[in-house]
Every structure is written in C-alpha cells, then in structure tokens.
Design goal:
The protein is of the alpha/beta class. The protein is built from nine helices and ten strands.
Length: about 250
C-alpha cells in the first residue's frame, strides 16, 4: 500500500482550469520533487492534497484512508501532513519556540512543558536552538523557514509538503534551508515544489515535470536530466538550470 495516492485530481478557479487529471503515488520516506513553469498548478496540487483547497474531482488517500471523503475528520488527517509555506506563515507575535510548540498543545493536546521540550528538540535539529526565544521579526528569512520546517516536524507527520520553500529567500540563505531538507531524506516522506535543480538532481527519488495542469513526464533524476523522453522536458530543464544556476544554490 502506497503512503500517498493521488488519483485524477482536477481543480478550477472560476473559468480557469488549473489541474487537469493529476495522478501519482508516493512510498514511505520517499522524496519527490515537482518542477514546472509558474502558473501550472504545482502549489494548487499541494493545497488539494491537504484539503486547504479541496479538488473539484478526484481522490487522495493517505495510508489507505481517503482524505477526500467528505465525512473524514480532516483536522485529524492534517496532523499527519506537514506543510512548509514559501512565505513562512509564522505567528509574528510568538517566539520561534512558541511557533513550534503551539500546534503540539492545541492539536495534539500535549501539556505545555512537554510541548516546549519537544519544540526545542526540533529547533535544535534545524540549528536554531540559540534563536528559540526570538520573534520572527528578529530572524532572517532562512531562519524563519527553518522554524517552519521544525514546526512541521514537531507534529510527527507521515509526509511534509514543501511549497517552494526557498523562493522568498536571498541566495546566501538558501543553502541552510536545503541542508536541513537534505538531512530529512529517508526519515520522512517529502513532496517538494521547487526550482532548485541541484537539490532535485541530488536528493529526489523521482522528479515530476508539470505544465498546463498535467504531468508531462516523470522519472528518476538521472533519467530526467540526461535522457528525458519529451522535448519540452529537456527544454525546461535546460532553461531552468541556467536561470537558477544549477549546482550553485542547490548543491
């Protein structure tokens, strides 16, 4: 049984059809990277998976349980689906420690002292123990994103969805975030929307290339980067690799 199964997902906003029948599966501890031009539905797909934007058609299963079932307790399911946003989405009036611990208290009903201890453990893992009592306004963009990753990890998810986690960062801050993500490979399943081609090449088990709301091609990194079957895939990878400096920021 697959950890995650996405089957025939469609999503429109008004007259604009964003997703046009997306299907794929993920196994436990697997890392998949979704690439593609802006506006092709990559972020929308992530939001459909965790039901922030329920799909118009199609179904999603997590560990064999259909999370698109209207009768499902979606809040319970979201405990197992971490989400790291490109704009951090931290509470500005809470310290880094509190941003991580609040979900443990409110969602998992863990006592405040234990939640704080677990939150500190997660901040330590992402290299932010010293900044635990600082507020988001006192942190760099890279540090904010690492708080976001620690917050997702604290919930002990089965999978973490990353929505372009480095796109809002200055180039010199990207490496730290990608290093943290690399350290998670093989420990938790990750579905990553990114333009970081070095990261995709070195870390992904599979790359999914999307365009126009459909999956154009997918395969392991070595095959996609050196022997892509479809001309459009080769064109995109060549252009995006040059634009984002493959190997300079992403490893």
């Amino acid at each position: 049984m697959a950890l995650l199964e996405v089957k025939d997902i469609y999503k429109s906003y008004g007259n604009a059809e964003i997703l046009k029948g997306i299907s794929f599966t993920m196994e436990k501890h697997e890392t998949k990277v979704i690439i593609g031009p802006s506006g092709t539905g990559k972020s929308t797909l992530l939001r459909c998976i965790n039901q922030l934007s329920p799909p118009d058609k199609g179904r999603v299963w997590l560990n064999g349980e259909e999370i698109t079932n209207p009768k499902i307790n979606i809040n319970k399911i979201r405990e197992k689906i971490g989400f790291v946003f490109q704009d951090f989405n931290l509470f500005s009036h809470m310290t880094a420690l509190r941003n991580v611990s609040i979900g443990l208290e409110k969602v998992k009903k863990i006592e405040k002292e234990e939640a704080s201890k677990r939150a500190m453990d997660e901040l330590r893992k992402v290299g932010l123990e010293i900044q635990a009592n600082q507020y988001p306004g006192q942190l760099s963009g890279g540090q904010k994103q690492r708080v976001g990753i620690a917050r997702a990890l604290a919930m002990d998810p089965d999978i973490i969805l990353f929505d372009e986690p480095t796109s809002a960062l200055d180039p010199e801050l990207i490496g730290g975030v990608l290093d943290v993500m690399r350290s998670l490979c093989g420990k938790v399943a990750m579905l990553v929307v990114t333009h970081e081609m070095g990261f995709a090449r070195n870390v992904a088990d599979e790359i999914i290339f999307m365009e126009g709301g459909v999956i154009v091609e997918k395969g392991p990194p070595k095959e996609m980067f050196t022997h892509a079957k479809i001309t459009r895939t080769r064109e995109f990878l060549g252009r995006i690799g040059t634009l984002y400096g493959e190997g300079k920021k992403g490893g």
